[in-house]
Design brief:
The structure is a homodimer. Chain A is of the alpha+beta class. In chain A, strands 9, 10, 11, 12, 13, 14, 15, 16 and 17 form a nine-stranded antiparallel β-sheet that branches. In chain A, strand 13 and strand 14 form a beta hairpin. In chain A, helix 1 packs across helix 9, helix 3 packs antiparallel against helix 4 and helix 4 packs across helix 5. Chain A is globular, with a radius of gyration of 21 Å. The interface between A and B is large, with 53 and 53 residues.
């Protein structure tokens, strides 16, 4: 493990408390802000727009190009540690910042594996960690060989730039015309077996520079069209043994890649009862949003504690069941009246609204409920999310 | 009850969500910011300093004189509703804003009773609500009569401007030289009997313009030198009947004074098992801070929901016991190392740090713990608060 540079808070801060810089002005930075305020640490956000989700709620905002070295340097100059609400900062910029002496958490070396799915597969496979079978076809001409090795259909992914189901294709046969599409992006392509999975799980852990780590309860993540729509904590019916395996696997990945901060390991639970690593994210993650209301310490607070090398908080659940549902936008005009209705209907519902303009399919916010009866809790969040999205109430 | 003006969100906001303006940049506004972000409503803060507690964490900050009409008008122009993190805005300014057509919640009429203890005593006594026996001595020459009526010692309070034990004197006899001091402030003086109380309680309620109200569990508030140091939710050993009486009393006060938003009613539980109203605050209150971690809906969120006429959230406790302790500052240099120690010692401890420069006796933040065993929970917060304040760990 790489030795982590020590943080030296400057004397200019109140009580000597440090400043965390977060690159990216999305909802993850927005939800980090309350955790920073509670901890009393500074939070500076770099956003490409003053109207982005986090830009609307943070005091120390730098508007600039997240992919431009000059802007990122100007931003980082005021920070004790720099972290990220997405994976889109180019590797050259990350390396330049580290060469400048800035403390990146996670570091450029770790982030490379969150940015490049092919590099991630190579590294995890080499470390003996369970992944779907995969190949690296150089062009569409290699697909028949990939299909022979992995079976049809194949899942093709651009190694960089995909999220929420973008950059993923399912190819049914060697002559499927979809097979040529991934190669047009001009980045390497990863071919994977299509895993016969029972469901998707997510194991979220936080890890400190000095190696302290905590593991959140393993959750079930329900996807629709490649987008997470619902998370149930803990994953219903998951055996203690498999839950522990998933947590241990996530901790191994974190240690192997020297991740500092949050790491979300998205997993397939196979029909045979095994686990395979699907995707990684080295930041607070949609599958951890339940922790704001459902855990002793939210993933956002533990991300900050980890990147600041502060002792980590308890990741324990506070309720028997916590369910989170994303609200995907449909109809702008109906939002505020629908929101009033939803608050009136369920006084114990918790809401996080991201302050974004509505586009169809865009994540506008999420709702969370908790309690002792899973069916009841799930019905409450599904109802609220559907109503907020403009669908008819059940 | 006065009819409340309707809120008309402007079209310029994301999704038509309204903007709440809060006058005052202290820790109450700071802790309101996360609730506003979660609800997706705008929060604009008027603060007399860009370095105040809330000023450090809100995006929409107006720096200006909270007691100057021009500045307050400039601030209010961007808000759908104006509320307060303290009681110090002069009544003339409140009335001028209402005359301009601004929506103040609570309104100027209600706030007058939070600003003037003598007016509050007169109004509550006239409404038959239980208060300590009181008189309104015009000068020190009236003190012997007050003492005869109320018994010695007397408690004298300036009707305006006091908080955290300031503006309060105990006068032991007619010839006690302290008796002259309150009259030097040039504001009316309230004389009260010194109540023989068993302990202090606080009943916090939220009330909407249309009259919906919720009552938080009644808490015990432990004071030292007139400053709240610890709050236990719910108040240990309080009978259901007395708890219900306290909640009903607070709801009556809220309705009687037409309070909109949070109302904290500080109560004496007398040695005879009765309740007397001590003080009122029409805003989130120190005795409600436990609700951030301990209740389904925090007092800050319910204050926003109330002033926006949104349906109120459940005030239910999440744990058997929740205890909050204030951290009163002693030693600046020791704060950050002490803080690391405290986080390491108790991973389930919750902390709210106010981002203020340290002065002896100033509230720097608070710590909260919850659980099933009151002695354990109380020991955890006392230990943490003492350590953070620079005292020796027990």
């Amino acid at each position: 493990m790489t030795a982590a540079p020590a943080i030296s808070p400057t004397g200019s801060r109140v009580g000597g408390f440090p400043v965390v810089g977060m690159v990216g002005g999305g909802q993850l930075a927005r939800m980090t802000a309350p955790a920073a305020a509670a901890l009393g640490v500074g939070l500076r956000v770099l956003s490409d727009s003053a109207h982005a989700s986090a830009a609307r709620v943070v005091a120390d905002l730098v508007v600039g190009d997240e992919r431009g070295l000059a802007d990122v340097r100007r931003f980082a100059a005021g920070c004790d540690v720099v972290t990220f609400d997405h994976e889109h900062v180019p590797g050259e910029i990350l390396q330049a910042l580290e060469a400048d002496g800035h403390v990146l958490r996670p570091g450029a070396g770790a982030l490379a594996y969150a940015q490049d799915k092919l590099a991630m597969r190579r590294r995890l496979s080499a470390a003996g960690l369970p992944c779907p079978a995969w190949r690296a076809p150089a062009s569409a001409a290699d697909l028949p060989d990939s299909g022979t090795a992995l079976g049809w259909p194949l899942v093709l992914k651009t190694s960089r730039g995909g999220y929420d189901g973008r950059g993923v294709w399912t190819v049914t046969a060697a002559d499927d015309p979809a097979g040529g599409q991934p190669f047009r992006a001009g980045v390497p392509v990863l071919a994977e077996e299509r895993v016969d999975f029972a469901r998707e799980l997510s194991a979220v852990v936080a890890r400190s520079p000095h190696g302290q780590a905590v593991a959140y309860p393993v959750v079930e993540s329900v996807q629709r069209d490649g987008i997470c729509v619902e998370v149930v904590a803990p994953a219903p019916g998951l055996s203690d043994a498999l839950a522990e395996s998933a947590q241990r696997l996530a901790l191994q990945v974190a240690a192997e890649l020297d991740v500092v901060g949050l790491l979300a390991v998205e997993l397939f639970e196979t029909t045979g009862g095994g686990l395979l690593v699907n995707e990684l994210a080295m930041r607070p993650h949609n599958s951890g949003h339940w922790s704001i209301d459902g855990a002793v310490t939210s993933q956002f607070e533990n991300h900050l504690r980890a990147v600041l090398d502060l002792p980590l908080g308890s990741p324990r659940s506070r309720a028997t069941w916590t369910v989170m549902a994303n609200v995907l936008g449909i109809d702008l005009a109906e939002t505020y009246p629908a929101y009033r209705h939803v608050l009136a209907r369920d006084p114990a519902l918790k809401l996080q609204w991201y302050g974004k303009a509505v586009h169809p399919g865009r994540k506008l916010g999420h709702v969370t409920a908790y309690g002792a009866d899973l069916d009841d809790v799930r019905a409450r969040v599904r109802n609220a999310a559907a109503y907020l999205a403009g669908a008819i109430d059940e």
